[in-house]
Amino acid sequence: MGCLHSKTTHLPSPDDPSSQLDPANGDQADEELQVPAFKEYGLSELRKATNGFSTQYIVSESGEKAPNVVFRGKLENNRVVAVKRFSKLSWPDAQQFVEEAAGVGKVRHKRLVNLIGCCAEGDERLLVAEYMPNDTLSKHLFHWDKQPLPWEMRVRVAYYIAQALDHCNTENRKIYHDLNAYRVLFDEDGDPHLSSFGLMKNSRDGKSYSTNLAYTPPEFLRTGRVTPESVIYSYGTVLLDLLSGKHIPPSHALDLIRGKNVLLLMDSSLEGQYANDDATKLVELASKCLQSEARDRPDAKFLLTAVAPLQKQKEVASYVLMGLPKNTTVLPTMLSPLGKACARMDLTAVHDILLKTGYKDEEGAENELSFQEWTQQVQEMLNTKKFGDIAFRDKDFKSAIDYYSKHLVACRAELCQWLENTESSSFLFLLKCNSFSWGFLKCPVILDQSMFLQL
After folding, report:
1. Which of 69, 153, 278, 454 fits as disulfide partner to 321, beta carbons 3.0 to 4.6 Å?
2. Measured between alpha carbons, how far is 161 from 195 in angstroms, rounded to an integer?
């Protein structure tokens, strides 16, 4: 895949000072591009940022199976980044890798996922880019959970990516390797960006295309070379993805278009969201991009001219169109030792920290009421919780979770009021995890009030 990279949570939308006014959202051309200068990072710094390239930090959609794995990382200045780790054979020449990365790092634009650094130490070849928290176009088109990508957002994707390609052309970076739905990523505001990783030569273990041969430009199949016209062809395949909500081979799509069966090409979930004329224009643009002869395809300027008039809701923010929460926080700023122990699901370490920071259960609590003042049911609930405290103190975490879970099921209605006075750190620790299984430590947890702010 491309990568999962973007602006950090506190970083404004990057803008290129030399770019024109954006007709999609009215951004000003003179906004400062809030992206750090390209630099070479040390391997130790990136190793620390990714917790030793931990598998828990992998954000590649294919996980560890991806040929070049992408990790989410956090630098010492709290900047959240994406770190792409190439296989050892991809770039045998370290100097060539650094020079190529530095060249790509100079290409900055608000529609790109900007490259901010690299690392070439020993056998390691790493790229560092902005981090994007809201997944890829592939995820939103083919594997959506809550709602399909709306028509207006699909048109915006087409326009923003055309903007990115046009800017790359003006910067004499006309070759983009393997443009597809995985290379388009969404930032915290829901705005789509084109991954800068595709500008790197020799990406994906030296292959220019990783997708099925049915989606590659005809000239690439003949010569093995990527040309600027090849990039336009790949843009056409992305348009097909946007129109259909499926990954349709270009040959099949062109057959539908020639047979004037455009409605068969369109995603049924988009019904009623677009004007037929607009859909026809986008289909015609895709057809032009997918011409078998490279000379018959349009250029990036033509793409901009064709797609810009199709945008009808420029004033609506992308996150609104996509149904995303505003400014989603990806990572907590800094984790305390307790938070780190929870993040790596180290129950023993959590237990030890709780003991050192004043853990105690409620045995012998002065305000405990007598049996006569409680119903049998409530007394049983308290006993169940006490058994959980004992099991937790004895490091029998499985039994502790079982007891606490039973207790919660029984006393959910009384829970909130009771929690205001309880001093049972162990119970609060498990309660706030909001999941009663061995996977409950996958998210940061809240313990008692004295530890709340530390997490």
Report:
1. 153
2. 10
Q: What are phi and psi of 124, to 5 degrees?
A: -85, 135
Average pLDDT over residues 46-73: 87
Q: Where are the domains of the chain?
A: 39-322, 337-452
pLDDT tens readout for residues 194-241: 999 989 875 544 455 655 677 889 998 888 888 999 999 999 999 999
The letter for the amino acid at 251 is S
Instruction: Give the CA distances from residue 298 to residues 48, 214, 232, in Å, rounded to whole numbers and listed in that order.
Output: 46, 21, 7
pLDDT tier, 165 (very low <50, low <70, confident <90, very high otherwise): very high
At position 309, the amino acid (one-letter code) is P
| Annotated catalytic residue, options 15, 22, 135, 178 | 178
| Tokens at 413, concatenated | 């209605």
Q: Which residue has the tokens 């997708």?
A: 211
CATH class for the region spanning 39-322: mainly alpha
pLDDT of 331 > 50? The answer is no
Helices 376-393/397-411 angle, 10° precision = 160
Task: Measure the CA–CA gap between 445 and 299, rounded to whole angstroms.
Answer: 52
Tell me if 307 sits within 8 A of 159, measured CB to CB. Answer: yes
SS3 category, 74: strand
Q: Is 178 a catalytic residue?
A: yes
Residue among 106, 156, 417, 151 nearest 266 (CA): 151
Helix (H, G, I), strand (E, B) or coil at 179: coil
Strand partners for 195: 113
Dist. CA 95–CA 330, nearest whole Å = 34
Helix (H, G, I), strand (E, B) or coil at 246: coil
